[in-house]
Amino acid sequence: MKKEEAQAGAQYVYDYVKGIIDKTGPRLPGTEEERQGALLTADIMKGISGKEAVVEEFDLHPNASIGAIPVVGFLGLISFALYYLSPIATLVISTLTLLFAIAQIFTYSGTFDFLFPKKRSQNVYTTIEPKDGEEAKYTICFSAHMDSCWNWNLSLRNPKTAIAKIVVGIVGFVLLIIMSAIAVGIGMYSFTTIADLAAKGGELNNTDIFKIVMYVLPVITVVGSYWLADYLTWDKKKASPGAMDNLSGIGIFLAYAKYVKEHPEVQPEGCRLMFAAMGAEEASLKGSFAFCKKHKDDGMLKNMYHINLDSFRDDEYFAAVIGDLWLGSRFDRDLIDISKEAMAEALGEDVTPKCPGEMFNPVGGCDSTPFCRAGVKTVTLVAQNPTLTNYYHTCNDTVEGLSMYSLEKGFETVVHLVPKIDELAKKQGLK
Predict the structure, then answer these.
(1) What CA–CA distance (Å, rounded) separates 104 from 92?
(2) What is the pLDDT of residues 121-152, one digit of tens each?
(3) Tens digits of residue pLDDT in 355-403
């Protein structure tokens, strides 16, 4: 690939991202703005592939995942207030709230989705079929997500302390459960008041000190629950525009699709190329789960290599994601290895011992996990600082913050990766 072609690809990505954000603004899961972005992208796909893009709708409860974090905080404050009136009520509410957080925010189980309003989202995709009417022997599916995230207030203000504040919130819940269980067990109503205990002064014995601890220690919950309640805002006008996360990924695969149409010789023999803009990734990967569920029995997922492109902005952090820690998924090792090779070829003299690298996704999940669980070979590629920043999931994720270098090298990575996947398909007997 010529240097000017790579630069033209990066410019195409930038222009796509800017065009979508200028028209839609932030695109929270299940909103009209997300749908508008998806349909605009479907039109662009049609212009590239020459055929109507497929639009597949699905139901979701968008605020039932990370959008529910403030609810957890509010319930923590209520649980604390009840502690001094009815420890058993606190025990029940705080325990159920922690279980809710594990199910909805940490494991994406969707067990309590029904408690939240239902909305509609959509996946849109197109394909470039094999040349000259050849039979498709395997599929390379590039995906990225259309939706953007709620504004993470704590990260916006100080990303260095955001995780610590969340930890305090979680510890507060565990502490409240323990303290309320002890209070129920020993009969908290028989306690004297803090004022009575304080009046004893130097006469305090160990039992009195224990009682003071039982009254005072749960106050930690107030601080942690307040931080949870303030973790993000539901105001879509303050949400992330989602330039890096993740219009950059969609822009890169659209630039590649355009490149293939202009250079049909780069499409491997017998290879179907698929380009999918997924909805509602920020709402527990609902779009990718819906896609895999819909197509699990129709043959679309058979002999598929899935490449998820998720966030390209940080020049020194090109990496292949090897799995989602929270969700217990591990991605395909062969795809990880050849993706790093493709990144290294794209980066050229800028390769360092740490870049390109590989890493577990430290928090949450990515769209590779639903494909992984469906038995599809998958990997997620990023150029993103793995630590919290003031532009990850915040209103600072704007088109102005994008790096043309990262977009260019992301585009080149895809160009280098496709022939490597073709070689892998030959080794695995698909050709």
Answers:
(1) 18
(2) 999 999 999 988 889 999 999 999 999 999 99
(3) 999 999 988 899 999 999 999 999 999 999 999 999 999 999 999 999 9
**H/E stretch holding 58:** strand 54-60
N- to C-terminal Cα separation, the chain: 25
- Cis omega before residue 386 (within 30°)? no
Structure token digits, residue 180: 């309320």
Other Cβ atoms less than 10 A from the Cβ of 57: the count is: 12
Q: Looking at this protein, which amino acid is placed at residue 242? A: G
Contact 391, 245 (CB under 8 A): no
Residue 213, classified by CB atoms within 10 Å of its CB into exposed (0-12), middle (13-18) or buried (19+), is exposed
**Rounded CA gap, 252 and 240, in Å?**
20
Query: What is the overall mean pLDDT for the chain?
Result: 94
Choose the weakest-confidence range: 18-22, 87-91, 240-244: 87-91
- CA torsion, ordered 239, 398, 12, 422, to nearest 10 deg: -70
DSSP per-residue letters across 68-83:
GHHHHHHHHHHHHHHH
**What is the CB-side half-sphere exposure of residue 267 using CA atoms within 13 A?**
26
Give residue limits of the domains in the chain: 3-65+119-150+236-427, 68-107+159-232
Q: Please, are residues 150 and 240 in contact by the beta-carbon 8 Å criterion?
A: yes
Helices (H) and strands (E) in the chain, counts: 14, 11
User: Which residues does 291 contact at the CB level (< 8 Å), separation at least 6?
Assistant: 56, 123, 276, 278, 370
Cα–Cα distance, 291 to 276 (Å, whole number): 10
Q: What is the pTM of this model?
A: 0.94
CATH architecture designation of domain 3-65+119-150+236-427: 3-Layer(aba) Sandwich (3.40)
